[in-house]
Design goal:
By secondary structure, the chain is mainly alpha-helical. It has 2 domains: about 375 residues, Growth Hormone, Chain: A (Up-down Bundle), CATH 1.20.1250; about 110 residues, 2-Layer Sandwich (Alpha-Beta Plaits). It is built from 16 helices and 4 strands.
Length: about 550
């Protein structure tokens, strides 16, 4: 279903709710997220009561995050290749079955800490496959101008659940059993499953030869490698998630071991965290527009420096409540900034793959950080682990210099109407998509006085060629004719070259236009395609005349 045109007025935080499908999915996600946060509290607290090892407790965060590290990239590739609606139905159903099974085993009373970790890992697998597709679907529900607010509201959905779920889960644990929490989480997936089931998604026609799974993975990695705006976010994301994981991994240990409080207090802490995030979303809707993405991330990171220090040093739970509130606001500011930057810098054809790589890096930071801080807490002390985590967060602020967060304002990532390279004119009916390699050469006539300016712009075009599928690319000068400069790029197959045409965006087209403005020839730049010499002819070749020996004549 294509989004209806956005309202004429400037979008606000409430604008995404004017789109019925987004509204329905958002409400269902709130219910499901409440169940997930209840599950998180019950799982962590159950392991805390079943073992005395801080490392095993910290591994609950790893059990949740590690599947994303292992499965995010394959999930992203699958999400760009198959019907996203069917994939969401599968993941929601799988997680419901796992949660219900965990509840049933818990009621038997014979479950161990390792078994809880195993079920948590299975739920993490479902979440890892679900995550990239769920985030990418937002671009299909609202128009691009409304997308930043939709991404923020998706964060609000999770944080409303964080405010409600932990407290509700803590109450159920206190008066009943964690098993009831696990069963309710399984039931909570039904609403999301039903909404997605009723979504009649219009599958967009594919352009060019279909990608295979391995090729799709390579294309996603290549896109990130040659996109400075994306890999800058990834570097900042890992540094932040590694340091912030100390709070998620060790908060229950702080509550139970350092402050000697109950599961209810742990749930209240998480509720304050969620309330701060919800409040932060609406603050960002107003004041946030005046801050750059870099300023938002720096502000949020400083907030988490204070969080880790407070968890290590503050002696009373009442002092930690406002700290958790501040942490929730900082968390939402940073996650919204990262998510928005990634999704607004990526065209639709590779969106789920890039989101999956972003999630992989994020979850890798959480997983590795959880192990590191848990091990440090076991070997030295809980306070030392939290203080070192605060130092890490403070040092990571320096990454803003080499890896600034780029603005997406003015980007036009819609597919270009046509590519200036005249590949469509090539007589390629007899060429198989698997034939290759392919070399494309485009010759320009450029005055020597313009070489320096031409080289700077051509370097940007070379990066775009590599990003969209070329294995090699560059600019060469003709030694016999110094004014003749040839751009070349080398592609693995003819099919991949055809896909390059459909990956070219209007922003890319503008870069190519800047390159072509230096061309001074009477005719447009000449593009030539070379196909690796085939074992069999690609065109029908007449048989040579029969040679009859003179002796026979």
């Amino acid at each position: 279903m294509a989004p209806t045109p956005p309202p004429a007025a400037k979008p606000t935080m409430w604008t995404p709710f004017t789109f019925a499908l987004f509204r329905a999915i958002w409400i269902a996600s709130v219910v499901s997220n409440v169940g997930t946060w209840m599950q998180n509290v019950a799982g962590v607290w159950l392991v805390t009561t079943l073992t005395t090892s801080a490392l095993l407790v910290a591994l609950m965060q790893t059990a949740t995050s590690l599947p994303a590290f292992l499965l995010s990239m394959p999930a992203g590739a699958i999400g760009d290749l198959i019907d996203r609606r069917r994939l969401l139905l599968f993941t929601q159903g799988f997680m419901a079955v796992v949660a219900l099974a965990l509840g049933a085993f818990t009621f038997t009373g014979n479950i161990s800490a390792l078994e809880v970790l195993g079920f948590t890992f299975l739920l993490g697998m479902g979440s890892a496959v679900n995550g990239p597709v769920w985030q990418a679907v937002a671009t299909e529900l609202v128009p691009r101008p409304v997308l930043p607010f939709a991404i923020t509201l998706n964060g609000v959905s999770n944080n409303i659940a964080r405010a409600i779920g932990p407290a509700l889960g803590g109450l159920i644990i206190a008066y009943y059993s964690p098993g009831y929490v696990f069963l309710l989480n399984g039931i909570s997936f039904i609403g999301t499953f039903w909404v997605v089931y009723r979504w009649r998604r219009e599958v967009e026609p594919t352009n060019g030869p279909a990608e295979n799974f391995t090729g799709a993975l390579r294309a996603g990695l290549r896109y990130v490698q040659y996109s400075p705006a994306i890999y800058g976010v990834l570097a900042r994301t890992f540094a932040f998630s590694f340091g912030a994981s100390a709070m998620w991994a060790l908060l229950s240990v702080v509550v139970a071991r350092r402050l000697h409080l109950s599961s209810g207090s742990y749930g209240v802490m998480l509720s304050w965290l969620g309330a701060g995030a919800v409040t932060g979303a609406f603050l960002m809707g107003r004041a946030g527009q005046k801050l750059t993405m870099n300023q938002r991330v720096l502000l949020g990171s400083l907030g988490f420096v204070g969080t880790n220090l407070a968890l290590a040093l503050v002696p009373s739970e009442y002092w930690l409540f406002p700290v958790m509130f501040m942490s929730g606001t900082a968390w939402l500011i940073i996650m919204t900034s990262f998510n928005t930057t990634v999704q607004l810098h990526v065209p639709k054809w590779v969106q789920a793959r890039v989101v999956s790589i972003y999630m992989l890096v994020f979850q890798a930071g959480l997983s590795l950080g959880s192990v590191a801080w848990g091990e440090l807490a076991d070997r030295i002390s809980l306070q030392t682990a939290l203080l070192v985590a605060a130092g890490w967060m403070l040092a990571s602020l320096a990454l803003a210099i080499p890896f600034p967060i780029h603005s997406s304002e003015g980007l036009d990532l819609a597919p270009a109407e046509s590519w200036a390279d005249p590949a469509d004119a090539v007589e390629g009916e007899a060429i198989s998509p698997d034939d290759g390699p392919v070399v494309v050469m485009i010759t320009y006539e450029v005055a020597p006085a313009d070489w320096l300016a031409f080289r700077e712009v051509a370097h940007q075009l070379t990066r775009l060629r590599l990003r969209d599928g070329a294995l090699r690319a560059g600019i060469f000068a003709d030694v016999a004719e110094p004014t003749h400069l040839t751009e070349f790029f080398y592609v693995a197959t003819w099919g991949e070259h055809l896909r390059q045409h459909h990956r070219f965006t209007r922003d890319d087209q503008a870069v190519e236009a800047q390159v072509r403005q230096f061309h001074q020839g009477a005719e447009p730049p000449r593009a030539t395609h070379f196909l690796a010499f085939p074992r069999e002819a690609n065109v029908e070749v007449p048989s040579p005349p029969l040679q009859v020996p003179e002796s026979v004549q």
